[in-house]
Specification:
heterodimer, A: alpha/beta, Rossmann fold, 2 domains, four-stranded parallel β-sheet, 8 strands, globular, B: alpha/beta, six-stranded parallel β-sheet, 22 helices, 14 strands, about 10% strand
């Protein structure tokens, strides 16, 4: 299958290994990955901060860039959540119903990575090998906006060598929330403290999730405390094999 | 002046009266609350307990989702024809011997109630727990007129005796623990047993003894309402302690202050809400004391019944096509009990009698966004509130919408854009074009110099708010799109 990768601006700029892993994983499963270079950002930060008018050109860019593709994947529940639940709404509110209709059509073909693997490609064992003790944080938008439910856990349970441990209070937000982490930094930090305690309680060496943004938050806190736990995106775990990780 | 369908826009709740606005921005008030370790402990303990109770009783009902959909549909239908249902309610209440008053805002409602208490020849009144009367600051208005209002709900009594403010719509004293309540009673209750312990039953008994004389002597009772049935003119109050039943039946005069959005069309609609509300609020299968009354019954209960229908910004909320679903709220408090922000900051940080997720949308809708401008941002948009809401109010989407309203109203009001608006516009300009975006990625590369071991420990403002507590990732040697090009893969 030919699959277009929406890598997301965050992974493109700060976490390229997430994009590389998604690419290598899908190629290993026998699919062809396309990376339309006209892509930039889904616009969620603008929409969630109140700047819908400013987000409109970004939404138009997303729609025009990915309209030619039948299947689109992004390694982010949050960005896919924005594509699915915000693009058409913003276009309509900004007076462009034509763009809203097109955005709805493209959104229907846009999948978060674990959804693509389990629902579209019908695979749970991706042939990965990752000999580590891992806990999974279900990010809010994956969990509630997209309803990915146990798909990531099903994928992780098939990874050879991986020991998956339950995260206490897993479904509580880590406190990231985009610009919330800046505008309400103290509250965000208090939420992060509780999430880090839950992660540390698992005695896991790796905390994984389907969103680089939440992992940047949790990982940034763990790193500041020298807590000895690292954050790794789901795509990186699924891409790792006995021959090593594609990202080194 | 802004207009709505050619008419002047409906007025928002006036300033300077009532409890819909805080004195400080949410982040400032939240910072102080977050530092209070006793408050954090009290809130975590209470919300954890009530969350578990709610989850257990909601899981028992196989038709919970259908009930939620029914509740949502009834409320949407009511809002669509609110004018009609309110006039029907008024006619039915009158036909059964009640007197109906219309109050456009808090000062009008306070004046009406003050005049009614005076007309009853009383200088005191007993009160059932009521958010509407807290919203309009009725107790303060009555006190200014020389009338003493006695709160009879245990938690409201704790708040009143402690000269405190409610921090939760269902459990107003949720921020207090048993030891703190005992201290308040010992300090403020003139007739209390000095050997009072912090055993919950002992605390409740002390309150009962304290209140009993008031119930028996009061000539005026004041209540809010959970529901009002338009087709019969029946009012409905749900409570857990029986104090409400006393206030609603013993005094000769009963005054009910009700937000206009509380009307429901028909008696059968109660069947939906009496299932949804107890399970969502107290985590009970059935509400302990459900009082229903219709007008006046000679020789039985209050012989004078006044219904005060309160607007106070509700019509302004109704005029907002997107925002109006906030008026569907049945005040269960499930959203604040599951909210990770509320659990950590408590209700006072929101500055309004309506805290938590629903308060963060309802308060700005009632006052105008400008007067509660930081509330729509007091959420990580995690969506737990939407999942818990018994009438399916899409609170995260409303928060996002109100943020847009705030930005757009500020844009119209200011001659020069804010620093944030400039930053956001610049970011959008960059992100709208892949060449500018690629150039910006490269321009950020010197940021690598800030990093040690791939981590940045300090960033300049406003990003310093991030690095106060978290490391930031240093930009990598190559962006993804550079790697893609260099990997020799197909360009598209």
């Amino acid at each position: 299958m030919r699959i277009a990768l929406f890598v997301t601006c965050l992974a493109d700029t700060l976490f390229p290994d997430v994009g590389k892993s998604t690419t290598v994983l899908l190629e290993r499963l026998g699919h062809q990955v396309a990376f339309p270079e006209a892509q930039t950002c889904c616009g969620q930060m603008h929409v969630n901060t109140g700047y819908q008018r400013e987000a409109l050109p970004l939404i138009r860019r997303y729609v025009e860039t990915f309209e030619p593709y039948d299947v689109i994947v992004a390694p982010s529940g949050s960005c896919v959540g924005s594509v699915r639940h915000q693009h058409a709404m913003v276009a309509r509110r900004c007076g462009d119903p034509g763009l809203a209709d097109r955005a709805e059509a493209v959104a229907g073909r846009t999948f978060e990575l674990s959804q693509l693997l389990t629902d579209v490609l019908g695979v749970e064992d991706v042939g990965a090998y990752y000999p580590h003790r891992v806990t999974y944080h279900p990010t809010c938008h994956s969990l509630r906006l997209l309803g990915v439910a146990d798909r990531p856990a099903r994928l992780l349970r098939q990874v050879a060598g991986l020991e998956l441990v339950d995260l206490p209070d897993a479904e509580v937000c880590c406190g990231f929330g985009g610009t919330f982490a800046i505008k309400n930094a103290d509250t965000s930090t208090a939420m992060l403290a509780d999430k880090m305690r839950s992660v540390l309680d698992t005695r896991a060496e790796v905390c994984t999730a389907g969103d680089s943004s939440c992992l940047m938050h949790i990982g940034g806190g763990l790193s500041r405390l020298r807590a000895g736990v690292r954050t790794v995106h789901l795509a990186e775990i699924l891409a790792a094999t006995r021959d090593g990780s594609p990202t080194g | 002046m802004t207009t709505f369908l050619g008419w002047p826009a409906p007025p928002t709740a006036p300033r300077g009266v009532g409890h819909l606005r805080g004195s400080e921005p949410f982040p400032v008030a939240a910072r102080r609350a977050l530092a209070d370790s006793q408050l954090r402990r009290n809130l975590t303990k209470a919300t954890t307990t009530i969350r578990a109770k709610r989850a257990a009783v909601v899981a028992e009902l196989p038709d919970w989702e259908a009930l939620r959909a029914a509740g949502q549909a009834i409320k949407a239908e009511t809002m669509r024809h609110l004018d009609r249902y309110l006039e029907q309610l008024e006619a039915q209440v009158r036909a059964r011997g009640g007197i109906v008053h219309w109050a456009r805002d808090a000062p009008e409602a306070n004046q009406i109630v003050t005049d009614l208490v005076r007309a009853a020849g009383s200088s005191e009144a007993v009160k059932v727990k009521s958010l509407a009367t807290d919203e309009i600051g009725l107790n303060d208005a009555l006190a200014a007129a020389g009338i003493t209002a006695y709160e009879t709900d245990l938690a409201e009594l704790i708040i009143q005796l402690g000269h405190d403010r409610s921090s939760h719509i269902l459990v107003p004293a949720i921020h207090r623990n048993r030891a703190e309540i005992r201290e308040i009673f010992l300090r403020e209750m003139a007739d209390v047993d000095p050997a009072l312990t912090d055993n919950p039953a002992a605390l409740a008994e002390a309150a009962r003894l304290h209140l009993r004389r008031k119930f028996l002597s009061a000539r005026v009772g004041i209540s809010g309402a959970n529901f009002a049935v338009a087709e019969t003119g029946t009012l409905c109050v749900l409570e857990s302690e029986g104090n409400g039943r006393m206030c609603l039946t013993l005094p000769q005069t009963l005054i009910t202050v009700m937000g206009i959005e509380k009307v429901i069309p028909a008696w059968r609609d109660l069947g939906v809400f009496l299932q949804l509300l107890p399970r969502s609020s107290t985590g009970e299968r059935m509400n302990p004391y459900t009082s229903l009354w219709t007008g006046v019954t000679p020789g039985d209960g209050p012989q004078q019944f006044h219904l005060v229908l309160l607007d106070n910004g509700r019509t302004a909320a109704l005029a907002d096509e997107t925002g109006r679903q906030a008026l569907h709220c049945i005040r269960c408090s499930a959203c604040m009990n599951v909210c990770p922000v509320y659990e950590r900051t408590g209700g006072h940080a929101y500055g309004s009698v309506y805290p938590g997720p629903i308060g963060a949308v309802l308060s700005p809708l009632l006052t105008g966004v400008e007067d509660n401008a930081t509330l729509p941002y007091a959420s990580s948009l995690c969506g737990a509130c939407y999942d818990a809401c018994p009438v399916k109010i899409d609170i995260p989407s409303l928060l996002v919408y109100l943020r847009a309203r705030h930005v757009e109203e500020a844009r119209r009001a200011r001659r020069r854009p804010s620093a944030e608006a400039v930053t956001m516009a610049a970011a959008a300009w960059v992100l709208a074009d892949p060449r500018r975006y690629g150039a910006a990625q490269q321009a950020g590369r010197p940021g690598r110099a800030l990093g040690r071991g791939g981590r940045i420990r300090a960033l300049p403002p406003p990003l310093s708010a991030w690095t106060q507590a978290r490391d930031a990732p240093a930009p990598p040697a190559r962006t993804f799109r550079q790697w893609w090009r260099e990997s020799g893969r197909e360009r598209s």
